[in-house]
Amino acid sequence: MLDLEDRKMEMIALLKKLVEIESPSNDKAAVDRVGAALIAEFQQLGAQVEIVPNTSAGDHLVARWGSGPGGILLMHHMDTVFPLGTLERMPFYEKDDKLYGPGVLDMKGGIVISLATVAALLDAGLLTSPVTMLVTSDEEVGSTTSEVLIKRLAKKASLVLVMESGLLDGSLKTWRKGVGEFLVKVKGRAAHAGGAHEEGRNAIEEMAHQVLAIQKMTDYARGTTLNVGVIKGGTVSNVVPEEAMIEVDFRVLVPEEAGRVISAMNALKTVTPGTSLEVSGGLNRPPMPNNALMKATFEKASRIAGSVNMEIKAGGSGGGSDGNFVAPLGVALLDGMGTYGEGLHSEREYIFTRSLTERATLVAALIRQW
């Protein structure tokens, strides 16, 4: 068994370094600063490094050790949801076997685990199969510039490990809901609310009908939810509002439900005479179902974990990851392989310090034995 415990302090040091290079998704220069630090780490480990240029977000990075068919793909992202300056009120620190800081859980801890694992395998002369690390720059904003790259690399792998955080108890994520969004706009007719009320066509009134219809599409038994999370409309109270807009989040467990929801949204009709309706959007990330392939992958991973005296558990999440893009490809996949803790996307975000070395030991075993 390759024990990563002796690398704990250097893993913490690297995590601190990466967290303290803030990297909000919408700041290319900031994300590329993290990228530069990672390139240095890759080169120090003798990787073949590919920089995938990106004008609308940070550049994506691909680091390769070994060549040939199959191999293991380790997937990560280096962007975070936290704006520049967050460190001033949310510094990196350790307390009670927990590490705090913006992005420790989502997901710079996962990057550190992969780097430490590769380093340990190289030092021990045990990296005998090809390993690829993909680090993207736009996961938190939909992966629009990285989706094609993710799929291209995943199709070539024998196993994909998504180094996103696990559940609080350390469980891996063997299912994720598909994630989508709709933008719904209503157009009415403006009029003076006092002098010509009857001549107006109230867009907010019409939108109220649509909000109720959309919320009723939720089906908990099928694991489907729709949430009207943003609503805007009107200008001032004495004008019949001409326009209204809502943003709708939707989540589905299986692909068939995505089709049902999309069809139902596109079939919405106006109730208020003289108003019009426009619906746009759809599915961003397909579901990652706990299907036969996922079950077989987890069972094999469980056997390998047992060989290094570890036990892994399975769980799932209503949130999406880049693993959702891999799921329909028919490739063996495990998600939630990174650190575990809680407070995701908040100023309470932390990881359990022990999860760094625990997960690195597990990943090393999977790379060696898969």
CATH superfamily of the largest domain, please? Zn peptidases
Largest sheet: 6 strands, mixed
Q: What is the structural class?
A: alpha+beta
Number of H- or I-type helical stretches: 9
CATH topology of the largest domain: Aminopeptidase
- The mean pLDDT is 97
Tell me roughly what share of residues is in helical segments.
25-40%
E-strand count: 18
Envelope shape = elongated
Strand content: 15-25%
Description:
The chain is α+β, with helices and mostly antiparallel strands. It has two domains: 5-176 and 288-369, Zn peptidases (Aminopeptidase), CATH 3.40.630; 178-285, Alpha-Beta Plaits (2-Layer Sandwich). Helices cover 32% and strands 25% of the residues. It has nine helices and 18 strands. It has helices spanning 8-19, 28-44, 104-123, 147-155, 203-215, 255-266, 292-307, 323-326, 354-369, and strands at residues 48-52, 60-65, 72-77, 93-95, 98-100, 131-136, 159-162, 172-176, 178-187, 191-192, 225-233, 239-240, 243-252, 276-285, 314-317, 333-334, 341-342, 350-352. The strands form five sheets. It has a six-stranded mixed sheet, with helices on both faces. A four-stranded antiparallel sheet has the order 4-5-18-17. β1 (48-52) and β2 (60-65) form a beta hairpin. The longest helix is centred in the N-terminal third of the chain and has 20 residues, at 104-123. 45% of the residues are buried.
